[in-house]
Automatic annotation (TrEMBL):
This is Uncharacterized protein. Residues 96-240, 266-325 form a coiled coil. Residues 51-66 have a biased composition (Low complexity). GO terms for cellular component: cytoplasm. Its main location: cytoplasm. Residues 21-88 are annotated as: Disordered. It is found in: Cytoplasm. PANTHER family: LEUCINE-RICH REPEAT-CONTAINING PROTEIN DDB_G0290503, ZIPPER PUTATIVE TUMOR SUPPRESSOR 2 HOMOLOG-LIKE PROTEIN-RELATED. It comes from the Eukaryota. The keyword Coiled coil applies. Keywords: Coiled coil, Cytoplasm. It comes from Bugula neritina.
């Protein structure tokens, strides 16, 4: 058998002509046929038939473009055709005649075998062609399935890539927002530090003002005590004035009785009385001035204390608001960190999934 490849890329199985050894069927009982042994000489039949069969098979396997091949006819005789058959048979010996018949039978068997092989070859070619078509169809189906799966995987990878891009964009936005929040938190912390410093200064000022207020309260108590003393002094002076007036009346009575002797004493008493009145008026003026100053200082101290209490309450409220805002910022930052960590976990899982997708597809 020889494998030959045609122009249409089809593999065909070509037979090689061979020469089977078959005993003679017609003259099997004759002693001449049974005692005859063929010799290896070229008589013009077997060698030519065999060489022609081989040449035909080789030419068929050398690349012809037709689908079927036919063997060339085998000449059964190489003797001249002008001799009659009887003369030819008479000119030959019986052994040669038997040998010629044997060769003719073998050639007919070879022809029959060649026809059978050609039929088998055509059947094999059809079977192989059918298998080739089925194989091509299967390859087409497998190729289509492969391309379909490849497109599906590509679509899935594109979708995952889009998801990853969306996640990355969201993470970038969250990162920018987190940076802005961190900057705002830093600004708030700076403001809180400044407010803490201001609050500390205000506390110190409040302590100073409280100390000054206590001092001024002590001074006001002293002034009140002094005013009481002055009032008591004025009261005593008024009593003395009443007593002096009574004495003056008595003296005037005495003067009327003894005007000459008591003129000098009356003048002295009048001078003393006038001096006492002047002292009383001066003490009253000083007391009024001190009382007015004390009232002004008291109003200033009360007004400053009210302003200080108002400022302290505002600072306390502002400090509480800043502490609450700082707590909210810390909670938001913690939530953003958790969301960022979750997004990073999702991103890592998607990356691992994308890396493992080609391996699973293969």
């Amino acid at each position: 058998m020889i494998l030959s490849k045609e122009n249409s890329n089809r593999v065909l199985v070509r037979p090689i002509a061979f020469k089977p050894v078959v005993p003679n069927r017609g003259d099997r009982s004759s002693p001449a046929a049974s005692s005859f042994t063929p010799t290896l000489y070229d008589d013009g039949y077997s060698s030519q038939g065999t060489s022609r069969g081989c040449s035909n098979s080789v030419s068929a396997s050398s690349g012809e473009s037709s689908d079927t091949y036919y063997a060339s006819p085998i000449h059964t005789s190489t003797y001249p055709n002008d001799l009659p058959a009887t003369q030819h048979e008479q000119s030959l010996s019986p052994d040669l005649i038997n040998y010629e018949k044997l060769l003719q039978e073998k050639e007919s068997e070879i022809l029959q075998l060649r026809r059978t092989m050609e039929l088998n070859e055509s059947a094999m070619v059809r079977v192989h062609e059918h298998k080739r078509i089925e194989w091509e169809n299967q390859m087409k189906e497998l190729t289509q399935e492969y391309h379909r799966r490849l497109r599906l995987k590509q679509d899935q990878s594109n979708e995952k890539e889009l998801d990853l891009r969306d996640i990355i964009s969201k993470l970038e936005m969250d990162n920018r927002q987190l940076s802005v929040n961190i900057q705002q938190q830093q600004i708030d912390q700076d403001r809180q530090q400044q407010l803490s410093i201001q609050l500390h200064e205000l506390k110190q000022r409040h302590a100073d003002m409280t100390q000054r207020l206590s001092q001024e309260t002590c001074e006001s108590d002293k002034l009140r005590h002094r005013s009481k003393e002055l009032e008591a002094t004025i009261q005593t002076l008024q009593e003395k004035l009443v007593i002096g007036t009574a004495e003056q009346n008595k003296l005037q009575e005495k003067v009327s009785k003894s005007s000459d002797t008591s003129t000098t004493q009356t003048k002295q008493l009048c001078e003393k009385l006038q001096q006492l009145e002047n002292e009383i008026l001066q003490e009253r003026g000083n007391f009024c001035i001190e009382r007015q100053k004390w009232k002004e200082e008291k109003e200033k101290v009360l007004q400053y204390q009210k302003q200080l209490q108002k400022t302290y309450s505002q600072m306390y409220r502002r400090n509480n608001e800043l502490e609450q805002q700082l707590c909210r910022i810390n909670s938001r930052r913690q939530a953003r960190r958790e969301s960022l960590q979750n997004n990073m976990d999702r991103f890592s899982l998607l990356s691992v999934d994308i890396e493992t997708t080609p391996e699973s597809f293969c």
